[in-house]
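Reproducibility note. Readers wishing to regenerate the assembly model reported in the main text can use the exact inputs given here. Chain order matters: entities are listed in the order in which they were concatenated for prediction.
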Amino acid sequence: MTAQWLLVGAVVACTACADLLQSHGMRRGGARWKVPVSIVFLAASFFSFTQLLRIADLSFAVPATAASLVVETLLARVVLKERVGWKRWGGAMLAAAGVALLAL
Amino acid sequence: MKARALWHTAGVIVLNAAGNFALSMGMKRAAAGAGPVLALLEPAAIAGIILLIAWMLLRLRLLQIADLSFVLPITAVGYILNAAMGAAFLGEHVSLTRWAGAVLITGGAALTSLTPEGGAEMQRQDPEAGRRKGEAA
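Running the prediction on these inputs yields the following structure tokens for the assembly.
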């Protein structure tokens, strides 16, 4: 069970890093080098996901990786300084509650 | 909504679920001694990867003909579909709490993506936006 959650963590962290780098790199004035680096993180995320599927149920693996929604919403607010509306926070909280249910 | 967009949407949802399903089957079929990379050479895993590439390409095509605010919430149903395929075809035991979790996650993903696009944020991130606005005035 611990290995499953470690792999979920790896998928979520790599996906969040990739999206953050892509979002930042593609913006006007953004550092373009971040886009190719994001591809490395995407590849790492997919590889971690394949390893997760090896040891975990499909019905657990796919929903659990939705925790990236929560992490990315937080990072969008903190790192990218985006304005995050109540709907987006609410959605992230619902997803977090869903992932918490998977842990039970 | 055009029928073409609806067909594309259905295709995106099905390809994602089928790709994850095949990948999951392939990874579990891989020999215990096979390393993490060698396991990906299992035929079902290769099929899963091909289906997921097709999913990504069809999703890009869908984004050309439909709004992102339509695509993201409706494709979030894939979380439930993946759980259903695991239960139906892989013999996984999906408990009530896991179903509830998948439903909450789908709702959360849909609600998150229903948020209007951040035009104000994009302008704030664009250092020239203020100057251009001033020139236009």
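We highlight two features of this model. Helices of chain A lie at 2-26, 34-55, 58-64, 67-78, 86-103. The mean pLDDT of chain A is 90.
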